[in-house]
């Protein structure tokens, strides 16, 4: 984003740091084969995001933080529920139940106790048990990785803030189909809904949470 736009936002009180809480959860949004495999029409440029997410998963597992994955999957009933979304984005039908496309990328395979939440729309919160899961774990912060930045990641960030969570988006751990929408939405998330930070800063946040947990 150009300097004049950044200055305008700063002058209007946008883009300040929210800061993380002390009990984060890691939510991996839609890093399924439909978004990570170049053969899919939904493909995003996700290799770097998958690699960064793998680093965050390792740290979150070591710190015993809550972790959840999401994927989009449509059976016949789901197609009826999400008709408006599918009419807008027909390529979503790629994510058909029983195919390989809704499966989480094998480079970041969930562990047996890490839930994979099925969703029909963009936000990881909408129509899923993510919010009660986070509440049960006494979380106050949501670290969001995944794809696409301008779609499901942004929707999850907005809903996360609206549900009362502090939102952290590691820049290198999210991906989109084109740099313009990717950068514009990172800017907008950082301006209004959460903190867009580096993976290294996020890893430090996770280590801090682990330390607090160990001395509690």
CATH class: Alpha Beta
How many strands in all?
7
Which superfamily, in CATH terms, is the homologous superfamily?
Answer: Isochorismatase-like
CATH topology: Rossmann fold
What's the mean pLDDT score?
94
Helical residue percent?
Answer: 40-55%
Domain module count: 1
Query: From the helix content, strand content and strand pairing, which structural class follows?
Result: alpha/beta
Q: Compute the CA-based radius of gyration.
A: 17 Å
Low-confidence parts lasting 5 or more residues at pLDDT below 50? Answer: none
Shape: globular
Distance between the termini: 42 Å
Order of helices and strands: HEHHEHHEHEHEEHEH
Q: If you had to describe this structure to a student in words, what would you say it looks like?
A:
It is globular and about 50 Å long. Strands 1, 2, 3, 4, 5, 6 and 7 form a 7-stranded parallel β-sheet that branches. The protein is an alpha/beta fold and 216 residues long. The chain has a single domain (21-215), classed as Rossmann fold. It has 9 helices and 7 strands.
């Amino acid at each position: 984003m150009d300097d004049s736009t950044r200055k305008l936002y700063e002058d209007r009180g946008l883009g300040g740091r929210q800061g993380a809480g002390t009990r984060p959860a890691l939510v991996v949004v839609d890093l399924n084969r439909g978004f990570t495999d170049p053969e899919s029409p939904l493909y995003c440029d996700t290799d770097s995001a998958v690699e960064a997410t793998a680093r965050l998963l390792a740290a979150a597992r070591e710190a015993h933080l809550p972790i959840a994955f999401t994927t989009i999957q449509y059976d016949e009933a789901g197609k009826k529920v999400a008709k408006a979304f599918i009419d807008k984005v027909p390529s979503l039908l790629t994510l058909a139940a029983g195919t390989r496309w809704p499966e989480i990328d094998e480079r970041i395979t969930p562990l047996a106790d890490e839930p994979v939440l099925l969703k029909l729309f963009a936000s990881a919160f909408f129509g899923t048990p993510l919010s009660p899961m986070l509440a049960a774990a006494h979380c106050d912060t949501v670290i969001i990785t995944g794809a696409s930045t301008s779609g499901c990641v942004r929707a999850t960030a907005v809903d996360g803030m609206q549900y009362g969570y502090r939102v952290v988006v590691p820049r290198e751990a999210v991906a989109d189909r084109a740099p313009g929408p990717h950068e514009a939405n990172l800017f907008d998330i950082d301006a209004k809904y959460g903190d867009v930070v580096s993976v290294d800063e996020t890893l430090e946040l996770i280590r801090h949470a682990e330390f607090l947990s160990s001395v509690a």
